[in-house]
Design goal:
Blueprint lengths: L2 E8 L3 E8 L4 E5 L4 H11 L5 E3 L5 H4 L2 H8 L2 E5 L11 E3 L4 E4 L2 E7 L8 E5 L4 E5 L2 E2 L2 E2 L7 H11 L7 E4 L4 H11 L4 H15 L7 E2 H7 L8 H6 L7 H13 L2
Parallel strand pairs: 3-4, 4-5, 5-6, 10-13
Antiparallel strand pairs: 1-2, 2-3, 7-8, 8-9, 9-10, 11-12, 13-14
Helix pairs in contact: 5-6
This protein binds fe (ii) ion (FE2).
Amino acid sequence: MMIEVEIVPALNDNYIYIIHNKTKFLTSVLDPGDPDPVIKKLKEKNWQLNQIINTHHHFDHTDGNDKLIEMYNAELVAPVYDNQRINGVHLNVSDKDVIEIAGTSSNVIFTPGHTSGHICFYLNDEKILFSGDTLFNLGCGRVFEGSMEQMQDSLKKIINLPDETEVYCGHEYTLSNAKFCLSLQPNNIEIKKKYDEIVKKRNNNQFTVPFKLGEQKLLNPFLQFDNKDFIKTMNLNEKTETEIFEYLRNKKDNF
Ligand SMILES: [Fe+2]
């Protein structure tokens, strides 16, 4: 693989990602909510920063933009839908655009719901997805600006990607998500196994990113809206797909 992803934990529970192309010696950073740990890591690696990319306008994903642009003269790529809410953008991107991230071809996927302008980035050759605050390990983002239906449609776009896709998401929420999963299906052996694995990882201060998309298709409750067994166990037969999603999202919001 010519692409290397450095995971930089930041703020309370954010993940910033530094994406480095070992062949072309190009480096991008995704969602720098805090510039300082990024600068530290770049110095440690002796990498120059070429590009900054944002998934959405929230401060914990964008607050480091200005300082990094100033220091490295890096190009800022952000969703066109957030044009009024992110400053200093050099390249506005929208759904289905193909751009280069650290010199590798990447698709822009419009995924509104968490915010109205949210986008994800999929690195085609590496099968890497940066999902921002749309898909989390065993969960999904809160629906702040879009409708439940929009968020569900965004997740449906994501699950069209290959099972072996490695997903890098915006927050370390996995333990709380695993607890929620187990509360929904306390008798599900696969969920219990995953829960134990997550508890162990977090006790050892290990990251729970990246994670495989295929596994999420099986275990993430927000992706089970058409899973007959899940619907039966949860007594959701009377509900539409969107009502199931809405029910789960509201339940998690109050968990
Ligand atoms: Fe966010």
